[in-house]
Amino acid sequence: MLADAWRYIETHPTQFVTALGVHVALSACALAIAALIAIPLGIVAARRAGFALAAINAANIGRTLPSLAVLALVMPILGTGFAPSLVALTLLAVPPILTNTIAGIIGVERDVVDAAHGMGMTARDVLHRIEIPIATPIVFAGLRTSAVQVVSGAVLAAFIGGGGLGDFITAGIAMMAVPLLLVGAIPVTLLSLGADYLFGTLERRLTPQGLRAE
Amino acid sequence: MITLTALSKRFANGAAPAVDALSLDIGEGEICVLIGPSGCGKTTTMRMINRMVEPDSGTIVVGDRDVTRIDPVELRRSIGYVIQQVGLFPHMTIAENIATVPRLLGWDNAQIGKRVDELLERVHMDPARDRNRYPRELSGGQKQRVGVARALAADPPVMLMDEPFGALDPITRESLQDEFLRILHELRKTIVFVTHDIDEAIRMGTRIAIMRAGKLVQYDTPEVILARPADPFVESFVGADRALKRLSLLAVDGHANNEPPPADAPRIARSGNLRDALSSLLSVEASCGAVVDVNGAVTGTLTLDAIRGAFAVKAEARR
Fold first, then answer.
1. How far apart are CA A51 and CA A41, in angstroms?
2. What is the pTM of this model?
3. Rounded Cα distance, A20 and A169, in Å
4. pLDDT (tens digit per residue) in B177-195
5. A192: left (phi over 0), alpha (psi -120 to 50) or beta
6. Torsion of CA A128, A131, A136, A138, to 10 degrees
7. Would you call B91 and A133 a contact, using CB atoms and an 8 Å cutoff?
8. CA distance A37 to B72
9. A132 to chain B nearest CA, in Å?
10. Chain B contacts of A115, Cβ < 8 Å?
11. Which ipTM score applies to this complex?
12. Number of neighbouring beta carbons within 10 Å of residue B17
């Protein structure tokens, strides 16, 4: 069966490479856009207790929505194709990054922030030199969760014509062709594991030494 | 050095004022201890001096500068700040922590490195060993040593210390109190020191400001506060053993005579205080003790009558 899947890839290289490329592009773009939205939003939200709570609650509701439901909700508004899929995946990626950014900033000990202000750091200094470095590992843990979620969620883009490896899976299911299904499923699994590994490594690398477990 | 005039702060409209028309004058090189029960406004008063809390009314003059007219960021860089939980930056090394204010002030690296080593030595840490360690590797006492070194980094004339020894075990606390008292006197820093521990206040303070409900109840030297509490509140605050506390402020040296002590007299350290001496005498039911210097040589005799006399003379002189 695996051999059949491999033969399919060998005989349809362009199709496979294109789908893989779309899948990676879709995931990477969604993650990047989500990070650009969620990290600054999280930093701002963390400044006000009420806002932070509201943002975390909204994000948690967002997280409980099934990925397919998000895609289905986007389709009537934005139609089908790459862009609507990107929007849906971005929506999927925002909550973990947002909640972790807020938790990371709020989690910086009050005494540390008080000492920083008391010694004459400006609000900007405190954010850049104290809060962000200390929150970085937690923000990266959020990015890691989002990355894995987006890579697997991107499979569903096939349902709204977004392309990617999900095309092979849906086609495989429709035609009851297991090898074709595997052409999509195996690379997606490897991509998820790869994303998890990549962000896990970044998380460790970017953890300031003083904060690392002994 | 620091003059507070009619300083008031109310945190919420309608609430009782946290600090109520407080005036206080702190001389250069003095350690002014703010003390009182929880919620008396002592920490708020301290935090208004570096504008971590903005006063509603009143003036604060530090040196010759009106604090409310200076940019708070610039002001804070010129005032040392030490808090109970230390607040070391966990992601920075000890050296980086100490270098915080010099870096904000734009010192060059060579100058900063030299200063960091100098300060680590001053607070009795080992630069070679500790410079590149992280806060989590230090004990509570070591953290507070670094906290004080960090506050001293840019050599500020004024330091604010909010219960700096509050989180330490009694033994570490006492040795750090003695050590920092010496360092701060050597450096002639003017210090505002907040505590709720009367023994610490008596030990550390040049003058003690006792506060209640945002108001200053009594502001005087430890001796006077113990000898003549202003009202029943101060009297109960300083404790029923205030006479003994006063003795703890008096040195054995100066109250002993030069006569040779009886052979069986208990030994009393010349560098100690009268309270400990009295305790030693009472515990062995002796009426006098042999005063000995650091080498163990007998230098004279301290009698119970001398202790009683010292106490009376001191009280008389204050009247």
1. 10
2. 0.84
3. 13
4. 988 988 888 899 999 999 9
5. alpha
6. -160
7. yes
8. 32
9. 11
10. 81, 83, 86-89, 147
11. 0.84
12. 17
Cα Rg, chain A, nearest whole Å: 20
Cβ contact, residue pair B91, A121, below 8 Å? no
Q: What is the pLDDT of residue A214?
A: 53
Distance CA A89, CA A150 (A): 6
Q: Which two tokens stand for residue A204?
A: 């460790």
Domain boundaries, chain A: 2-209
Place of tokens 């990266």: A140
The architecture (CATH level 2) of A2-209 comes to Orthogonal Bundle (1.10)
The token pair that represents B112 in the structure block: 């900063």
3-state secondary structure at position B189: coil
Token code pair at residue B189: 């820093």
Tokens of B24: 């206080």
B142-164 pLDDT tens trace = 999 999 999 999 999 999 999 99
Cβ neighbours of B147 in A, within 8 Å? 115
Element (DSSP H or E) covering residue B31: strand B31-35
Please report the beta strands in B84-230, taking only residues with DSSP state E, as ranges in sequence order. Answer: 158-162, 190-195, 207-212, 215-220
Q: What is the DSSP string of B236-272?
A: HHH-TTHHHHHHHTSBSTTT-BSSPPPTTPPEEETTS
